[in-house]
Sequence to fold (149 residues):
Amino acid sequence: MVQLLETTKPLNFLAIGHQLAQEFAKTAVDRDQLRCAEGDRNGGSRPIHEIEQLRQSGLLNLVIPTIYGGLGETSWVKIFGLIREFAKADGSIGQLFGNHISIVSSLSTSNPTQVEQLYNDLCLSAQRSLFAMNFIGNRFHETASKTIA
Fold:
């Protein structure tokens, strides 16, 4: 089983990511073959279990500054190395994680008065385990529905 991140002591996120990537690689080929055979109609080939493992690992908070409760990683060499490791194991998970990291890191360029709220909403609230695409999509739909209504 994959070790979960604990925020109370220094973490070796690369080792945790490596362990996750090894787990992901075990099912990647079978899922791809199933998706091709079924034409991706039933969704059974999507990496649902693997995505849940990634959520539970705590790595979604990787680039969030520590003052907001994240892991505060700033070394893009290490971050891209982790994305590459996931992509070697399973391309779809590598892309999903890479997109998430890119979006979350771009939040730091938001209006300074909104940055803390964005990070808190994304990672420290009840939506803690959402990927950035889900969070931003949900926030957009909430705002749009209030505007339209």
